[in-house]
C-alpha cells in the first residue's frame, strides 16, 4: 500500500485498536478502517465471529485478541498485549430495554458496566501503560439516546450512553496536553443484529423506521465512515465532541 | 409453573386495568392499557419471576395470556434440556 501523504483522511501508518469487532458496528469499523490502510488489533468475546472479522480485513499485519472486556482480567490481558496505539475505537456495547419499575441493580450494573465502565477502565489502563501515542485519537460509539433522546424502557441504556457523552468532555481536557483527541460518534438506530433477541419486535422497528426523515436505519459502515474521519488527521482539531449520525431523526 | 400464578403475574403488569378479570384466554392486546411499554414490562416480569428471557419477536405472535405462558414454558423446557446435555 502506498502511503498517501496528500490524503488527510487516510489511516495509513496508524495502529488502531477496536473493541466489539466480532459483530455489528465494531465489525464494520474494523473492515472499513483496514480498507483505509490502518494496522488493526481487533478484540471481541466470540472467537469464531472475531476470526470471521479478522479473515475479512484488508491488508496484512493485523492482530485478533479474544477477550471479555467486562472483566478486569480481560481488560488487563488486552491492555498488556497491545502495541502503542494511534487510535482506539470503543464499539463493544449492549442494548437493553427495561421499564423503570422493573429495573434491578443487576441490569444497571450489566448495562453501565459494558457500555460505560469497561471502555473507561480499558482506556485508563492503556494510558497508564503508556500504550497511547501522542496525537492519538480515541473514539467511543455512544448514541443519540441519553444526550438527545430516549425511548420507552430506555432509561438504563440512555444513562450508559449519556455517561459516555459526558465523560469524553473531561477526558478530552485531560488528554489535550498530549495532543490526544477524544470524541464520540452518536448514531441513531443502526441496522445490526443487536435487536434480534431484544424486547423490541420487528413490527415496532418497522414503525420506528418511519420516524426517520431519511426513511431508513443507518448502516454499520456509515458509522464506520464517521469513525474513520475522527481517527484521521483530517479531524486534528476536533476533540470533546459528539458527531450525531442519525438520518435526521433528532431534527423532528 | 402454574398457569394461575402466571395469569396473576401477567395481570399485575397492568396498572390501570382491574386485575381480577384476567383468565388464560384473555386477549391482552384488546385491553385499552396495552402498549409497547407494557410489552417491555411483560418481558421484564418474565425475566424477573421465571428467569426466562423472551424477546419482542417471541411475544408478537402471542394473543392470549396462555399463548405467553406457553412460550415461557417452552423456553423453560429448552433450558432444562440444555442442562441435561
Report on the structure:
The complex is a heterodimer of chains A (252) and B (85). Chain A is of the alpha/beta class and 252 residues long. Chain A contains 7 helices and 7 strands, in the order E-H-E-H-E-H-E-H-E-H-E-H-H-E. Chain A has a 7-stranded parallel beta sheet, with helices on both faces. In chain A, helix 1 packs across helix 7. The longest helix of chain A has 24 residues, at 105-128. Chain A is globular, with a radius of gyration of 17 Å. Chain B is an all-alpha fold. Chain B has one domain (3-84): ACP-like (Non-ribosomal Peptide Synthetase Peptidyl Carrier Protein, Chain A, Orthogonal Bundle), CATH 1.10.1200.10. In chain B, 60% of the residues lie in helices and 0% in strands. Chain B has 4 helices and no strands. The longest helix of chain B is centred in the C-terminal third of the chain and has 20 residues, at 65-84. Classes of the chains: A alpha/beta (252), B mainly alpha (85). The A-B interface holds A 97-99, 101-102, 104, 152-153, 195-204 and B 35-37, 39-41, 43-45, 48, 53, 55-57, 59-60.
Strand and helix order of chain B: HHHH
- Most residues in contact: chain pair: A-B, 18 and 16 residues
**Could you state the CATH homologous superfamily of chain B?**
ACP-like
Topology, number of strands of chain A: 7
CATH class annotation of chain B: Mainly Alpha
Instruction: Please identify, by name, the CATH architecture of chain B.
Output: Orthogonal Bundle
Could you give a short account of the major beta sheet of chain A?
A: 7 strands, parallel
Task: Report the helical percentage of chain B.
Answer: 55-70%
What are the defining features of this structure?
heterodimer; A: 252 residues; seven-stranded parallel β-sheet; 7 strands; B: 85 residues; Non-ribosomal Peptide Synthetase Peptidyl Carrier Protein, Chain A; 4 helices; globular
Amino acid at each position: 500500500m502506498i502511503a498517501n501523504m496528500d490524503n488527510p483522511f487516510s489511516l495509513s501508518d496508524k495502529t488502531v485498536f477496536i473493541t466489539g469487532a466480532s459483530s455489528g458496528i465494531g465489525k464494520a469499523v474494523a473492515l472499513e478502517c483496514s480498507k483505509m490502510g490502518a494496522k488493526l488489533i481487533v478484540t471481541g468475546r466470540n472467537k469464531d465471529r472475531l476470526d470471521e472479522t479478522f479473515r475479512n480485513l484488508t491488508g496484512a499485519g493485523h492482530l485478533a485478541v479474544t477477550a471479555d472486556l467486562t472483566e478486569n482480567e480481560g481488560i488487563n490481558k488486552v491492555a498488556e498485549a497491545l502495541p502503542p496505539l494511534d487510535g482506539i475505537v470503543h464499539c463493544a456495547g449492549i442494548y437493553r430495554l427495561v421499564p423503570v419499575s422493573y429495573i434491578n441493580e443487576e441490569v444497571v450494573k450489566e448495562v453501565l458496566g459494558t457500555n460505560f465502565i469497561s471502555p473507561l477502565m480499558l482506556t485508563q489502563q492503556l494510558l497508564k501503560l503508556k500504550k497511547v501515542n501522542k496525537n492519538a485519537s480515541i473514539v467511543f460509539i455512544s448514541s443519540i439516546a441519553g444526550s438527545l433522546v430516549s425511548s420507552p424502557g430506555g432509561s438504563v441504556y440512555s444513562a450508559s450512553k449519556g455517561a459516555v457523552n459526558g465523560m469524553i468532555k473531561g477526558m478530552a481536557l485531560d488528554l489535550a496536553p498530549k495532543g490526544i483527541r477524544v470524541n464520540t460518534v452518536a448514531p441513531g438506530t443502526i441496522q445490526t443484529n443487536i435487536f434480534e433477541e431484544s424486547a423490541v419486535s420487528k413490527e415496532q422497528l418497522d414503525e420506528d423506521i418511519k420516524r426517520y426523515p431519511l426513511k431508513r436505519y443507518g448502516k454499520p459502515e456509515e458509522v464506520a465512515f464517521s469513525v474513520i474521519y475522527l481517527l484521521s488527521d483530517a479531524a486534528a482539531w476536533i476533540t470533546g465532541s459528539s458527531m450525531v449520525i442519525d438520518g435526521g431523526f433528532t431534527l423532528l | 409453573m402454574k398457569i394461575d400464578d402466571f395469569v396473576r403475574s401477567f395481570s399485575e403488569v397492568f396498572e390501570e386495568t382491574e386485575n381480577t378479570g384476567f383468565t388464560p384466554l384473555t386477549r391482552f392486546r384488546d385491553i385499552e392499557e396495552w402498549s409497547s411499554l407494557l410489552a417491555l414490562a411483560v418481558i421484564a416480569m418474565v425475566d424477573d419471576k421465571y428467569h426466562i428471557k423472551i424477546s419482542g419477536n417471541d411475544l408478537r405472535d402471542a394473543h392470549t395470556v396462555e399463548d405467553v405462558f406457553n412460550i415461557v414454558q417452552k423456553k423453560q423446557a429448552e433450558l432444562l434440556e440444555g442442562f441435561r446435555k
